[in-house]
Amino acid sequence: GMKVGIVGLPNVGKSTVFNSLTKAGAAEAQNYPFTTIDPNLGVAAVPDERLDALARVMESRKVVPATVDFVDIAGLVRGASRGEGLGNQFLGNIRECEAIAHVVRCFEDENVIHVDGKVDPVGDIETINTELLLADLSTTERRLERVGRAAKSGDAKLKAEAAELAGLVEHLSDGNPARTYPRSEVMAEALGTLITAKPTLYVANVDEESVADGNRYSAEVEKLAAREGAEAVRLSARLEAEIAELPEEESREYLEMLGVESTGFEGFIRAAYKLLGLITFFTAGEKESRAWTVREGSTARSAAGRIHSDMERGFIAAEVAHWEGLVDAGSWAKAREAAKARLEGRDYVVSDGDTMIVRFNV
Ligand code: GDP
């Protein structure tokens, strides 16, 4: 699945975020056949009102949301890039993720020790980012050495890559993430292995009282994210953990008292989903309504392959209706009558919110 790594200094609330995300996700995705393989790997359901609406009109017996996998990457400390703590192992875990959620402490609490003695979100972010940059720098220097040696054969492509790698070493040494280095074809492979090339979402973990309006710490995080061209969301991990223990009615009252509609957790999952360049299409019927995840730009045939490899292999056509058209019509038959459903071929590019019936040869 799509994997998002949760990083941050110790004691900033990573585990609390991870637990509340995946606990809520597990509750929502009761029907989803996943097992927790690893205590640090969890599955979160993507909240989606469109899916709920489809399931209602179809009177679906089962509703299956899209999911995002989260990995709790604990133990990233100052010196990790030099192998301190369990440094190298953790950096390896981050490399396997497609995106990074960087949790930042934006709450004061004298009972929760801060590793550097004070609440300082920008300083914390710099500490973590420095380790990630140093890890990427050493990866890039090693690659430059190897490619530079091979380029002595006179191969033009290798020479071009060596020149670009030297530029990237300089870029990283100046403290810039690989994300902001110009992408070219010769660099695609090199950039694909770098941590700071991954899309990053900053998560400002605030106290209960600051969910509605934020505080001075979360404002600093939002400013930094804007500067870096990264995304930022605000949530309260502890509030989320408390809410998860309450009955529905009480949790709603509690949120109302705090002046918010949700704990911020839904916004977080949606932002992570968007960050990965993913879109959703649906299948909807009496038996089941389900949300499927594909990359933006996917064709109908490859989308069919998400459902079943037989559907991709034997693909004939897809019957497509926008979710809203189908909900308005009330059924596939009525959507056809109202010309709200149409037939599309294998190369049709799927849009976010499409509902599909795949016709295929077995
Ligand atoms: P991690 O080391 O980054 O995984 O941090 P944890 O999730 O274990 O949290 C560290 C401590 O901070 C725990 O005692 C949490 O209960 C507490 N904590 C987490 N979020 C908040 C919050 O928003 N406010 C307060 N006051 N404490 C929090």
UniProtKB/TrEMBL annotation:
Lineage here is:
Bacteria, Bacillati, Actinomycetota, Rubrobacteria, Rubrobacterales
CDD domains assigned to the protein according to its UniProt record, in alphabetical order: YchF
Kindly indicate whether the keyword Aminoacyl-tRNA synthetase belongs to this entry: no
Q: Does the keyword ATP-binding apply?
A: yes
The scientific name of the source species is Rubrobacter marinus
* Ligand binding (ATP): N11, V12, G13, K14, S15, T16
User: Which HAMAP family does the protein's record reference?
Assistant: YchF_OLA1_ATPase
* Residues of the TGS domain: 277-360
Cited InterPro entries: ATPase_YchF/OLA1, Beta-grasp_dom_sf, G_OBG, GTP-bd, P-loop_NTPase, TGS, TGS-like, TGS-like_dom_sf
> What is a GO molecular function of this protein?
ATP binding
- This protein's UniProt keywords: ATP-binding, Magnesium, Metal-binding, Nucleotide-binding
Residue stretches making up the OBG-type G domain: 2-277
What function does the entry list? ATPase that binds to both the 70S ribosome and the 50S ribosomal subunit in a nucleotide-independent manner.
Cellular component (GO) terms are:
cytoplasm
Q: Provide the family line.
A: Belongs to the TRAFAC class OBG-HflX-like GTPase superfamily. OBG GTPase family. YchF/OLA1 subfamily.
Protein name, UniProt field? Ribosome-binding ATPase YchF
Per its UniProt record, the required cofactor names are:
Mg(2+)
